[in-house]
Design goal:
The complex is a heterodimer of chains A (368) and B (600). With 368 residues, chain A is an alpha+beta fold. Helix content of chain A is 35%, strand content 22%. Chain B is 52% helix and 9% strand. The chains are: A alpha+beta (368), B alpha+beta (600).
Chain lengths: 368, 600
């Protein structure tokens, strides 16, 4: 029964796309491409359709919506609150509730963590409007723990189709409310022992044969915010070997608070602070993942990653986010080969200017 | 940081080493006669080839090798910016200095001549290389044909009946001179291809470094390296012999402590059949660099290969697969090449990359294989002949031991032969037995005193940048390594050591200092080998140890090649490894970044 409501990210196929929405589809795609996103599953649009098939609920929602003046923001907010209350308190079909609870328990078991904190994320979709973007208009809940809370947040995701800003947006775009459907993603919150960023080229000289990794203990905020000087590793992309490592004293780390509901800062004890925060095999795992991401997207990437302490050793590296690298990718690569030079002339040039005497090479053309 | 290394004229001779200058050709030591030039020049110690003080005869290889290298740069190919590499001996140790062409106009004038001469070799490389292999075999046959017999009580009758008109005294003197000429010819052959081979390799190397500024040297070496290389063949034959032992149940015969008894017990078995079919040439293999008469050769010291074979038998019994997965190695090489090629920015670059890689691969078999033919095979034969001549001197009472001959300068051997011949001709006693007995004791004392001395890594003021391509390529001397030596000197023994990231990976373990090939048997499982330099023939111990640290050598040193082959972390060219590290001290060797950390 639950098969029709649940698609695990690692079972995702292309044909599932309309049922799971854009966000979940892209997570499923990454898993399919061999990229390690944190484990989880999507509750499909079928579950939402059950709710919409509730004739009494639909009638009451339509009644409220028919009277809304979307140009009046205060009024819109009032109606939104009433509609969301109706949806969040509507009866959910037992088999759907069961599917959510069983799947969440399985995720907890897979990670070996009771009441595993998860992100519960809306993934809106409109079958007839494949190009429509609803990004960020619906709600996302982080650090949700326990099956009751997860079930609660799923209902809040469904209702978030009717936030005031989502309604205003659809009005602006001329979409009917009924065209929208909703899938919900439930995904393990990453619990990093180490995290950071990775560039699939060397940001200091644009060398495309290198992967540069910044890493520090705990959550990646420490690295992204610049609150610590991270350890820096340069890894050769082809050999997957560390070509340079700079270990810095890492003063603080962002860690999970005691209730496992958020992140707090704490100092790092001195002996740990000066040790490399990644072992060599972990550096190589992060680099191999970054290389796979670049290959998947076909262009240099700027990646956020973490090593999750709750995933099995060796499978701990997770991809949090990837965007195209923009600084070096926009410059024109400098040609190395000297035009019209015969092989023998090449050797003469090399003898006359051995590489160690040349100015530090840059891989792009100099701006003039 | 210090700005310069000591002047050769301010370096003191260790106690007991006084008079060392007389042990070498008069042109080898630094001297007041050329002080201006010598004091104003940068010299680096070549411990890759000559880690120990030279005995008088062994200095011959230094002179033959460096003159031959230089001759090809200066007179054969007219390498535009580089003349030869000058060489000196200080307190028994070798110092080298590359000589640039100073005048830019002259460099320009050499370019077209270089292109014509080197161009011919590059265009006809394969033909010329197969010719080289034939020439080498002829040369080795000629060396093998040289013989030294004690002078006869009387000349044989046929000397009279055939009317030869010349006797054994002339023959033995001529034979030694012939042998010397073959030795010099050997070294001329050695450099016939090498400098050009390195030039082509450097060109590809430079291209890769320009396209990918952070590419590891190792990656470039891997793209060019041959998959089946003669230098690994002796080790491969040991593995084959180990398999024969296992397959034929010959382990108990092999276990015999006494190598002669073991060889006797193995006689007539498939083991000995294979041994005999491969020992010549493959076991003409030096346990060291092949530049010293003391370096043991497998074929003369079967205890060395037998010990290695025992290790391999144990590995086979433990279920290890000793074979090199040739297909996988080849596939991996192809993958590396195609991935870097994809990362290049344009089709023009990809075309140049393929062209330069192609040429580097044409020249590389010579670069990889010449070492076996020259330093191992030919030197083994050469030293055998020298030791035969040593036996003649022992018989005539000149020396107590055949190896004493190596405490004579090469031209003094002519004098001793003259003394021996002349006394034989006249029918009186030679002076040699008394003279050499006294002189050899003195010389041995000097060499022993010099052996305890640690030569500084360099002398004089370093150049602002090192530009000489062969210095960079052969000796791994760069502006960075010079700065490192100067800095390390200042640090006075504190902190970590840095060197070349010669073979990747990280390992920890206790150190074992090995100063001579004879001591490699001391190495225990999991130890880190710390040596002035390692030789390719030490390969079999590499299956035991955790990592390697050397004082000397760059990315292309033979030791670095073997470590990569065995997948062992290695840091080479640390300059002070054997000086600073103690046996038993725990180390962390990071062969990816080139650092050695002392953990206690």
């Amino acid at each position: 029964m639950s098969a029709e409501f649940i698609v695990w990210f690692d079972d995702y196929r292309d044909s599932d796309r309309p049922r799971v929405g854009g966000k979940n589809a892209s997570l499923g795609e990454l898993v399919g491409a061999g990229l390690p996103v944190p484990p989880g599953f999507a509750l499909t649009t079928e579950a939402y359709h059950f709710l919409r098939a509730d004739a009494d609920l639909s009638r009451r929602v339509r009644g409220l919506l028919s009277g809304v003046d979307l140009n009046d923001m205060a009024h819109t907010r009032e109606i939104s609150t009433e509609v969301r209350y109706l949806i969040e308190n509507a009866e959910v079909h037992a088999s759907i509730e069961e599917a959510i609870r069983v799947s969440y328990r399985k995720l907890c078991a897979d990670c070996g963590v009771e009441d595993l904190p998860v992100a519960v994320r809306s993934s809106a979709t409109a079958e007839d409007l494949p190009d429509a973007s609803f990004a960020g208009q619906q709600d996302t809940f982080l650090w949700v723990k326990g099956e009751d809370a997860v079930f609660e947040k799923v209902r809040q995701c469904w209702s978030s189709i009717f936030t005031d800003r989502a309604m205003a947006y659809r009005h602006e775009m001329g979409h009917e409310h009924e065209v929208i459907s909703m899938s919900v993603g439930i995904q393990k919150m990453v619990h990093p022992k180490t995290a950071g960023v990775a560039f699939t080229l060397n940001p200091s000289d644009g060398d495309p044969s290198q992967i540069a990794i910044d890493a520090s203990y705990g959550f990646g905020e420490a690295v992204v915010s610049g609150e610590v000087t991270p350890d820096n590793f340069l890894v050769d992309k082809v050999l997957l070997q560390v070509t340079r490592r700079t270990i810095s004293p890492k003063t603080v780390e962002f860690v999970l608070d005691e209730e496992r509901s958020g992140v707090v800062v704490r100092e790092i004890e001195p002996e740990r602070s000066t040790r490399p925060c990644l072992a060599d095999d972990e550096v190589i795992s992060v680099a191999a993942m970054a290389k796979a991401v670049e290959r998947h997207y076909g262009s240099p990437q700027d990646i956020e990653w973490a090593i999750d302490c709750e995933l099995p050793a060796g499978d701990g590296v997770v991809l949090l986010q990837s965007r195209p690298e923009t600084v070096w990718s926009r410059k024109k690569r400098r040609q190395v080969a000297r035009a019209g030079e015969t092989p023998l002339e090449g050797i003469v040039s090399t003898l006359l200017a051995p590489i160690h005497t040349r100015a530090k090479a840059s891989t792009v053309e100099r701006d003039t | 940081m210090a700005e310069r290394f000591p002047s050769p004229f301010e370096v003191e001779t260790p106690p007991g080493g006084e008079g060392w200058e007389e042990l070498y050709t008069y042109s080898l030591p630094f001297s007041e006669d050329r002080r201006d030039y010598e004091d104003g020049t940068f010299w680096f110690q070549d411990g890759i080839h000559w880690p120990d003080p030279l005995t008088p005869w062994d200095a011959t290889w230094l002179e033959y090798a460096l003159a031959s290298l230089s001759q090809y740069n200066t007179r054969h190919y007219l390498i535009p910016p580089a003349l030869g590499v000058d060489y000196r001996v200080l307190n028994g140790y070798t110092y080298l200095s590359p000589v640039p062409v100073a005048d830019p106009e002259e460099i320009g004038a050499r370019v077209p001549q270089f292109m014509e001469r080197a161009g011919f070799y590059f265009q006809n490389w394969d033909d010329l290389y197969s010719k080289w292999l034939e020439k080498m075999k002829v040369l080795i046959d000629e060396m093998e044909a040289v013989g030294f017999e004690p002078l006869p009580e009387k000349e044989p009758m046929e000397v009279v009946t055939e009317g030869r008109g010349a006797g054994s005294g002339l023959t033995i003197q001529k034979s030694y001179r012939d042998l010397l000429n073959l030795g010099l010819k050997l070294w001329q052959y050695h450099f016939e291809f090498l400098n050009l081979g390195y030039a082509a390799y450097l060109d590809f190397f430079g291209f890769c470094k320009e396209a990918f500024p952070n590419i590891p040297d190792l990656a470039i070496a891997k793209m060019v390296a041959g998959v089946e290389v003669d230098l690994f063949r002796p080790d491969e034959e040991l593995k084959t012999l180990a398999r024969i032992v296992v397959d034929n149940g010959l382990k108990s015969a092999l276990e015999n402590e006494d190598p002669a008894a073991a060889m006797d017990a193995l006689a007539g078995t498939p083991f000995m059949e294979h041994w005999d079919s491969v020992k010549d040439p493959w076991f003409n293999y030096s346990a060291g660099t092949g530049f010293y008469h003391t370096h043991k050769v497998w074929i003369e010291h079967p205890e060395i290969p037998l010990g290695f074979i025992r290790n391999y038998v144990a590995a086979l019994e433990a279920g290890e697969d000793l074979s090199r997965p040739i297909d996988d190695i080849r596939k991996e090489r192809d993958r590396i090449v195609s991935e870097y090629e994809e990362l290049l920015g344009s089709d023009e670059d990809r075309q140049a990359f393929a062209q330069k890689l192609g040429l580097a691969r044409v020249v590389f078999p010579y670069v990889e294989n010449h070492n076996f033919y020259v330093e191992h095979w030919s030197h083994s034969v050469f030293y055998r002949k020298m030791k035969e001549l040593g036996d003649v001197f022992v018989k005539e009472g000149f020396f107590a031991d055949r190896d004493d001959i190596f405490y004579l300068k090469r031209d003094e051997v002519n004098e001793a032969l003259w003394d021996m011949y002349s006394a034989w001709a006249v029918g009186t006693k030679p002076r040699g037995p008394v003279y050499w007995n006294r002189e050899l004791d003195r010389r041995k004392g000097i060499i022993e005193a010099l052996r305890k001395w640690s030569p500084p890594p360099a002398l004089g003021s370093p150049p602002e940048v090192v530009t000489e391509p062969f210095t960079i390529m052969l000796w791994g001397i760069t502006s960075d390594s010079i700065a490192m030596w100067l800095g390390a000197d200042e640090a006075g023994g504190e902190g970590d050591l840095r060197g070349f990231a010669a073979s990747p990976g990280v390992a920890e373990g206790p150190a074992r200092i090995i100063l001579s090939a004879d001591d490699i048997g001391l190495l225990q499982d999991g130890e880190i080998l710390v040596a002035p330099i390692t030789a390719p023939s030490w390969a079999p111990v590499f299956s035991k140890i955790a990592a390697t640290v050397t004082d000397i050598g760059g990315m292309m040193s033979h030791a670095a090649i073997v470590c990569r082959e065995y997948g062992l972390p290695a840091v080479t060219g640390t300059a002070f490894g054997t000086d600073r590290i103690r046996t038993g001290q725990r180390l962390r060797v990071d062969g990816s970044s080139g650092t050695v950390t002392m953990l206690d």
